[in-house]
# Entry
Amino acid sequence: MKKQLTLFASAAILSFTAGAQQVTFEEYDLDNGLHVILHQDNTAPVVTTSVMYHVGAKDEDPERTGFAHFFEHLLFEGTENIERGEWFKIVTANGGSNNANTTDDRTYYFEVFPSNNLELGLWMESERMLHPIINQIGVDTQNEVVKEEKRLRVDNQPYGNILAEVKKNIFKKHPYRWATIGSLDHLDAATLDEFLAFNKKFYVPNNAVLVVAGDIDIAKTKKMVKDYFGPIPRGKEVTRNFPKEDPITSQYEAKAYDPNIQIPAIIACYRTPSFKTRDARVLDMISSYLSQGNSSKLYKKIVDEKKMALAVQAVNLSQEDYGVYALFALPLGSNSLKDILKEMDDEIVKIQTELISEKDYQKLQNQFENQFVNSNSSISGIANSLARYHMLYGDTNLINSEIDIYRSITREDIKEVANKYLKPNQRLLLEYLPKEKTEK
# Structure
């Protein structure tokens, strides 16, 4: 989120967003269940083709974690009509770029091309969906890629395992309890048949949304979509029935160790509701109020004025089924984790007992207005939002209307939600510590 706008600029944005920020789109379903969203913007000769699959780490077998992230890599290996190793070469040779990413809830693939290569983008994504080549050579190759990624981004990265430690401690039943990247031992143990079965179950048109956004002709695009994606067979319906978490009724504590750090961290974590709820948006505002920018409450008090911490952050990590609200800090000097926790708790109590000031409330509104303006500033960003709002929220038009939810949040709402979720008896306290040296 960018720096806050002035009141004058915010007023200008309020009037501007009513018209210029409106994202127009058309959506429909193919007979095979593929949901299609088209967004036309002819201001630049660029087009994004993207497919989001409703499959993430939470859809995995507990004994085969890491499959969803693994497939993010595996499905670039090649298809019946795209030879192994040629995917990225084709994209680059035609002036494009592409990428993919995975969360606990979904997997997203996209290409950005000059608009005269729209058909190429559609063909490539239909190839990925219709007949990818999944063989032992590709599995072995991508297994090494994933291992290197885990070593680089997690195992050898300072504080790289914090989120994984939070998840495994705050979730006891729900599959959010394991890391998105999963277990390398599980991937090593998996058979080729298991990978083929995972693909057959989840990478089907009725478990996906296709978004085409940018410099397109709607009628011509519809024909190409039907030609390339219409023949793909519908898969079996994916059913989900994840176990519900028991409420946290008393504070519990955990410790984790990281050989890559010298400064310990304290993390206070609260289990919160789905990002589809209004309360989740209120928690977004609370996190911004506490730690967004150098003038935020936690930063100004603990880092700037008292100089007790090197860093402090409040973050609302919302997901489709549950969320985690986390307070994080790194102590400075001789200040203890307990000292830092008390300072953070004091600020939470203030929110729970007093209404935030009108000035701070307006600052929050300005921040979220600014965020909204910037969120729809690129075609690729719009494509991602359209897919995400349809698939995970069930309302594509949230790309235009979600800001109204934030606008409707009051100071009283902030106080009420802080009292509802941010209670000491409803949290996990995690001490993230330097790994103890063993005696030789």
Summary: The CA atoms of residues 133 and 386 lie 29 Å apart. The chain is about 45% helix and 20% strand.
